[in-house]
């Protein structure tokens, strides 16, 4: 059996992932949204459920639901799924069918609980909160208002909200919850020695910057005392920005979390200010994974938790090698699974050896994946990013420019689909 196809048992919960793979969290933007009526935000839809039915068929070891804000104003984007105790609808009933669809063929399912903090766009809120008042610079057409530092009572409230999110996921049938502490979102804004300029118990030393994360873990366990429920974190192996979380700090945080009983630590990297979903070093290109060197530096220090590393993996050989050589226990994948939702199953069944190439320019690859998610959710053919013509059309749609059409050029399947932004 190839390393990728080998089941992984989590030590604390005893849960078994059927393969050594993880579908990393990806924002779906398929839930309800109303600008003015917060009650109407974040409710799962049939399209959101259908998406997870498709991924559920793909022999994925662990399926992580895309980021779920625990505050109706702390959104990563409009149409996020949300779990917030103030919403009048029943979140357990709303998430249950989605989780059941994802679990139908044996995958474990965990929900990623998040708060955007200073990375909530101005379109969603003019009054964001953060660890401090350092404003996030504009990115890809989005602008961000200057944040206000959270007060300690507000931190207490958010800690409880994270715990409530875990409880809802548990009652809705999920196998676990993942705190999103990567990519510059709120928990990452506390961990960063640059963004976090607090002088109270939540700022300064690494121990203080870690305090909110520690409290979230404790609260999730308090609200879900069942040891069989997986607690997980997605964390930056480094922020890649001056003064941001370093590898050494990330390693120390992972050691603390392992000691606290987390079952799964997923490593990533970068923030909105310093995107890291590309190769920072030529030396790691052959091994594909962007963060393999970081994982190698962290893994020997982790005693019980399983490690997943996400970003850059495209061929079965690189994935098998990373597991065999002890870089990681689990391979995380994101963009390849929006192009080919059953890629892992096809690799394990020997039908393919690598993800299809993408001709999408890297800065637009997230937008293109969101479009593919839209295709999947509606049962449409998935836009082929290996087709130059389709790529031109998507680039045009994402950048607001009409594609150049040569005389007699055929209409592509993407153009025929309804999936325009
Ligand atoms: C469309 C899209 C949405 C994403 N949304 C999230 C998210 O909600 N939470 C998260 O932790 N990472 C998110 N990411 C990052 C991915 O989980 C992953 O870390 C990154 O894409 C690198 O993996 P890859 O090279 O396999 O795509 C997203 C990525 C994409 C492409």
UniProtKB/TrEMBL annotation:
<comment type="similarity">
    <text>Belongs to the NADH:flavin oxidoreductase/NADH oxidase family.</text>
</comment>
<dbReference type="InterPro" id="IPR051799">
    <property type="entry name" value="NADH_flavin_oxidoreductase"/>
</dbReference>
<dbReference type="GO" id="GO:0010181">
    <property type="term" value="F:FMN binding"/>
</dbReference>
<dbReference type="InterPro" id="IPR013785">
    <property type="entry name" value="Aldolase_TIM"/>
</dbReference>
<feature type="compositionally biased region" description="Basic and acidic residues">
    <location>
        <begin position="403"/>
        <end position="421"/>
    </location>
</feature>
<dbReference type="InterPro" id="IPR001155">
    <property type="entry name" value="OxRdtase_FMN_N"/>
</dbReference>
<keyword id="KW-0285">Flavoprotein</keyword>
<feature type="region of interest" description="Disordered">
    <location>
        <begin position="398"/>
        <end position="421"/>
    </location>
</feature>
<dbReference type="GO" id="GO:0016491">
    <property type="term" value="F:oxidoreductase activity"/>
</dbReference>
<keyword id="KW-0288">FMN</keyword>
<dbReference type="Pfam" id="PF00724">
    <property type="entry name" value="Oxidored_FMN"/>
</dbReference>
<protein>
    <recommendedName>
        <fullName>NADH:flavin oxidoreductase/NADH oxidase N-terminal domain-containing protein</fullName>
    </recommendedName>
</protein>
<keyword id="KW-0560">Oxidoreductase</keyword>
<feature type="domain" description="NADH:flavin oxidoreductase/NADH oxidase N-terminal">
    <location>
        <begin position="43"/>
        <end position="346"/>
    </location>
</feature>
């Amino acid at each position: 059996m190839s390393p990728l196809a080998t089941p992984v048992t989590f030590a604390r919960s005893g849960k078994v992932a059927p393969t050594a793979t993880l579908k990393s969290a990806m924002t779906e933007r398929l839930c309800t949204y109303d600008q003015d009526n917060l009650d109407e935000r974040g409710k799962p839809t049939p399209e959101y459920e259908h998406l997870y039915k498709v991924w559920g068929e793909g022999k994925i070891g662990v399926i992580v639901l895309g980021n779920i804000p625990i505050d109706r104003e702390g959104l990563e984007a409009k149409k996020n799924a949300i779990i917030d105790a103030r919403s009048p609808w029943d979140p357990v009933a709303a998430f249950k069918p989605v989780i059941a669809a994802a679990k139908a063929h044996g995958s474990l399912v965990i929900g990623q609980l998040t708060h955007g903090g200073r990375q909530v766009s101005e379109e969603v809120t003019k009054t964001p909160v953060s660890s401090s008042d350092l404003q996030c610079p504009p990115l890809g057409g989005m602008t961000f208002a200057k944040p206000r530092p959270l007060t300690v009572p507000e931190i207490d409230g958010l800690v409880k909200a994270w715990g409530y999110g875990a409880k809802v996921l548990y009652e809705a049938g999920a196998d676990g919850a993942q705190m999103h502490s990567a990519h510059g979102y709120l928990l990452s804004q506390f961990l960063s020695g640059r963004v976090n300029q607090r002088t109270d118990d939540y700022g300064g030393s690494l121990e203080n910057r870690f305090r909110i994360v520690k409290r979230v873990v404790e609260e999730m366990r308090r609200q879900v005392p069942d040891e069989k429920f997986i607690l997980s974190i997605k964390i930056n192996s480094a922020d890649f920005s001056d003064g941001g979380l370093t590898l050494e700090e990330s390693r120390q945080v992972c050691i603390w979390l392992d000691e606290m009983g987390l079952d799964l630590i997923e490593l990533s990297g970068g923030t909105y200010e310093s995107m890291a979903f590309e190769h920072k070093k030529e030396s790691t290109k052959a091994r594909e994974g962007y963060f393999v060197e970081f994982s190698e530096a962290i893994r020997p220090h982790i005693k019980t938790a399983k490690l997943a590393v996400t970003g850059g993996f495209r061929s079965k050989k690189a994935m098998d090698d990373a597991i065999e050589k002890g870089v990681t226990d689990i391979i995380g994948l994101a963009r390849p699974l929006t192009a080919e939702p059953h890629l892992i199953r096809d690799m394990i069944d020997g039908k393919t050896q690598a993800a299809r190439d993408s001709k999408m320019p890297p800065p637009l690859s997230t937008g293109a994946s969101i479009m593919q998610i839209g295709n999947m959710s509606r049962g449409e053919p998935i836009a082929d990013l290996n087709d130059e013509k389709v790529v031109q059309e998507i680039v045009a749609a994402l950048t607001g420019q009409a594609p150049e059409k040569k005389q007699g050029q055929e209409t592509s399947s993407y153009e025929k689909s309804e999936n325009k932004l």
